[in-house]
Amino acid sequence: MDPGRALTVAILAVGLAGGVAGCAADAARICAASGGSYTGGTCSRWGPEQQAAEDACQSGGGVYQGGTGTCEFGMGGP
Questions:
Q1: Same-domain check for residues 39 and 72
Q2: Same domain, 39 and 57
Q3: 35-51 as b/e, with b when 16 or more CB fall inside 10 Å?
Q4: What is the pLDDT of residue 27?
Q5: 16 plus 33 within the same structural domain
Q6: Please, which residues have CB within 8 angstroms of residue 35's CB and are 6 or more apart in sequence?
Q7: Residue range of the domain that includes 10
Q8: CB of 36 within 8 A of CB of 44?
Q9: Which of 4, 40, 70, 71 lies at a C-alpha separation of 20 to 30 Å from 11?
Q10: Separation between Cα atoms, residue 44 and residue 78, nearest integer Å
């Protein structure tokens, strides 16, 4: 590979890596501003309201889907 092409590829790689890091930082900032915690590329918000909904759902035999805030019944299992 000629030096000019190698330099172009290196500059492009650094630019893309910086852009991805910037997106992750923005996502973490937005998540924190909404009261969540950003870990492993996922924003999670879990508080007393969600815990109460999960407990109520499970007490009725359902499976609480935290991402959508829904209680599902008859999903798999014995």
A1: no
A2: no
A3: ebebeeeeeeeeeeeee
A4: 85
A5: yes
A6: 45, 47
A7: 1-44
A8: yes
A9: 40
A10: 30
